[in-house]
Specification:
Elements (H helix, E strand, L loop, with lengths): L3 H20 L4 H34 L8 H12 L4 H13 L4 E8 L5 E8 L2 H14 L3 E2 L8 E10 L4 H11 L3 E7 L2 E8 L4 H10 L4 E10 L7 H14 L5 E6 L10
Antiparallel strand pairs: 1-2, 1-3, 2-8, 4-6, 4-7, 5-6
C-alpha cells in the first residue's frame, strides 16, 4: 500500500536538497555536508519506521523474543539489511518490554474528494488518541467514520519470498499450507513470489513457508481499496499535509487509503 506519509517525507527531503544546492555556491564541503545531513535524516526516518513495525509485531505476537515471534524476527532481519545498528534494535526491544502493554487498533475516516483512510494505531489509550485525531480531522475537513468505511477495503495478508523452483511447485505449496494464492511479481527488478492469505494467518503461513525453505522478504497485511479515486492537485496537497501531521503521532503505524497516486515522474 502506498504510504502518503513516507512520500511526503521523501518529497520534502528532495526539496531541501535542491535548495541547499542552490545556495551552497561552489563549496564542495557544503554540498557534502548537506547531502550527508539529508542521508542521516532519511536513515533516522527509516529506523523510526522499523521501530514502529517492531512495536506492532510485539503487540500482535505477544512476545518481544524474535526466536518465538516470527514477524518480529523478519522485521529485525530486514532492519539489519538496511544497516540499522544492532544496538539500536536491542534498545528498541528493551524499551518496548519495559513499556505499558499496548493494543493494535484501526481508525477510519473520510477526507477530501471521497478519499477514505484507515489508520493502524498502536496505543495504550485509544480514547485519548481518538480525541487528538478528531481535532486533526476537523481542521483538515475530514470526518471520522467509526468503522463504517472499513468495508471500502479488502483486507489481505501478503508474504513476499525469494524465487524458488517454479510457479507450479509454489502453487502446490500454497495449497498445502493454507495460502489463498501465489503469483510471480517483480520487486526491485527481482522476480519474487507473493503469497496471499487471510490476514489473521500471516504469521502461521509465514512459518510454514519458512519450514519449506522459502526465504521470507516481507510478511504483512494490506487494505486494498475496492473503489480507488483520483484527486485534484489541490486535494493531493491537502492530503500530503494531513499525512505529514498524522505522522507526528507516535501511535500511528501505517496509513492506508483509496487514492490513485500519480507517478512522480509525471508530476
Amino acid at each position: 500500500m502506498y504510504n502518503f506519509t513516507r512520500v511526503y517525507i521523501q518529497k520534502t527531503a528532495r526539496f531541501f536538497l535542491l535548495e541547499n544546492k542552490r545556495f551552497a555556491g561552489h563549496s564542495k564541503w557544503q554540498n557534502i555536508k548537506h547531502i550527508k545531513g539529508e542521508r542521516d535524516a532519511e536513515k533516522s526516518t527509516m529506523y523510526s519506521l522499523f521501530a514502529r513495525r517492531m512495536k506492532v509485531a510485539i503487540a500482535e505476537g505477544k512476545s518481544a523474543k524474535p526466536e518465538i515471534n516470527l514477524k518480529l524476527a523478519q522485521i529485525i532481519e530486514e532492519a539489519k539489511k538496511k544497516s540499522m545498528p544492532v544496538a539500536t534494535i536491542n534498545g528498541v526491544l528493551e524499551k518496548i518490554e519495559n513499556a505499558k502493554p499496548k493494543t493494535v487498533e484501526l481508525v477510519d475516516f473520510r477526507g477530501p474528494g471521497n478519499s477514505i483512510f484507515i489508520l493502524k494505531l498502536l496505543t495504550e489509550n485509544l480514547k485519548g488518541i481518538r480525541m487528538n485525531l478528531n481535532t486533526v480531522f476537523r481542521k483538515n475537513a475530514c470526518i471520522a467514520s467509526d468503522g463504517k468505511s472499513l468495508n471500502a477495503f479488502h483486507h489481505q495478508g501478503f508474504i513476499l519470498t525469494d524465487f524458488k523452483d517454479n510457479l507450479d511447485t509454489a502453487t502446490n505449496d500454497a495449497i498445502n499450507i493454507g495460502a489463498e494464492d501465489v503469483e510471480e511479481i517483480t520487486e526491485n527488478n527481482t522476480t519474487v513470489y507473493r503469497f496471499s492469505c487471510n490476514p489473521l494467518y500471516v504469521a502461521k503461513v509465514t512459518q510454514k513457508l519458512t519450514d519449506l525453505n522459502y526465504k521470507i522478504i516481507t510478511a504483512d497485511e494490506e487494505f486494498i481499496p475496492r473503489s480507488p479515486v483520483n484527486l485534484s492537485d489541490d486535494d493531493l496537497k491537502k492530503i500530503e499535509a494531513l499525512c505529514s501531521k498524522l505522522n507526528t503521532f507516535e501511535e500511528v503505524i501505517t496509513i492506508h487509503h483509496n487514492i490513485i497516486v500519480p507517478d512522480e515522474e509525471n508530476e
